Amino acid sequence: MAASVEDRLAINDLFVRYATALDNGDVDTIVGCFTEDGSLESPAVGVYSGRAGIREFSNRFAAFRARGSQLRHVLSNLAVSVNGDQAHATAYLVNIITRNGKSEMMPPGRYDCRLERVDGEWLFKHRLVVLDAEFKLEGI
Known about the structure:
The protein is an alpha+beta fold.
């Protein structure tokens, strides 16, 4: 089902809030983007479930940034379908990592996400990262 303009904008804001919080090492904002039982699955960093798992994931990224590495998540081509308080959204993903004054790009990919509206707010229920080539993020 097509998403309303309001739902589409709210889901877009969720994607942007998550990506910028991840790039900035903002643990609480990252955790707040997920439902209580939400999960994240990435071939580059593993699988994390529940708010405690998402916090562990977030802390690892914050520490990565604190050690001098900077990530930049670039999102595009957001596609959204909504069915009541459930949604499915995908977006293209490009990650750039800068370490020791040198930038490199991870293989491009996409996010494939199930979302749930909780108390009027869209949150990630399951966030899957699909990369176009194998890649392990070193130092996380």
